[in-house]
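Researcher: I'd like a structural prediction for the single chain below. Treat it as a standalone chain; there are no partners to consider.
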Amino acid sequence: MIKRERYLNQLIKKQWNGRIKIITGIRRCGKSTLLFELFKEHLINKGVNEEHVIAIALDDDQNARFRSPDTLSEHVRNICTDKGQKYYLLLDEVQYAISKAELKDTETPPRLYSVLNGLLHLKNVDVYVTGSNSKLLSKDIMTEFRGRGDVVQLYPLSFGEFYEASGLDKTDAYNEYMTYGGMPYLLRLESDNEKFQYLNELFEEIYLKDIEERYSIGLPQVLRELTTSLCSSVGSLTNASKIARTVNSHKTEKTNSETISSYLTYLTDSFLFSKAERYNVKGKRYFEYPSKYYCTDVGLRNIRLGLRQQEETHIMENLLYNELRIRGYQVDVGVVTVTESKPDGKRAQKSLEIDFIAREGTKMAYIQSALSMDDTQKQENELRSLKAVNDSFQKMVVSKSYGKRWTDEHGILRIGLIDFLLDENCLQG
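Model: Treating it as a single chain, here is the predicted structure.
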């Protein structure tokens, strides 16, 4: 059993906070295990009477009657009659209690939301739910629950979690993780072929079909071309118009930027991809476009490309982005403008990129991703943008070629890739 302590501790801290705890994240990343096994075990170990833990998996046909929100409400209320006792309601795959008609109705919230909000009025019931429908998991869920929802976003395994559970040494664990990613079920599979087939089926038979059914996708081949394009270009600046031109250059159904923009929203709301916006460090403003997109799991990215395009530079950048998100940071792409002299003596402005700006509350860090820093010119290019930032926030370069970490004369931390991935406190200064 993988501990998933980061997320378990979040649930523990949120107990009895008067809100519905909503566990979100890409399908098959371990939401059900977190709630029904790890959290339930924690409650029982803390002395909670097992009969006071109401655990209902709505995807189980034996619980089909509870897919009716009114039947579910009546069932829970009939159990929680002792006002002097505390009860925990754990609901798994709650999208089964939302009809397709309700999903398509953008004006009226599904009946389930009213039922869950109503259960909060029972002061002796603490409510926890998971779900896999993009509507349920998207940012508008907070509006649907009228400020009574508290989201815990679950990700595939971090490298640290994978390394601890795999039993491999650091190098072998990194090579495996870099190729197949961190979907938990992979740890049960032995052969490369089994892993390939599992991830490929996840992408085609679950993720894409979920999106197609939820949004009634009219151009499914375009959606597939889009996902392939995003996987191929992780870490590259792009926008809907550019992607539309790329998709239209292939012999598939034709599309336009408006359709691509909608499909990008569906893919990010379903947690397959994340969007990193560009931020002007000195101007303190965001650019409207272009942006970067990263795959939530590098294994899914690699399998989508048939294990081709295995450029470690891009994979490493995606790994770092995911690790920062897992640790709870908001992640942007930094842009800093410098003035330089041209050969003719004139001065001109040039925009330099910082791979990541990681923010958590009032804390911030600037991070460059560099597979190798052995070349002098490469070092200068990577450091130049960091040196151009005049504030006092932490600056670092993460490189696979570094050994022991050190801080240079400019105050820039140099840290090895695996060291960074395993040290969750390295951004704390």
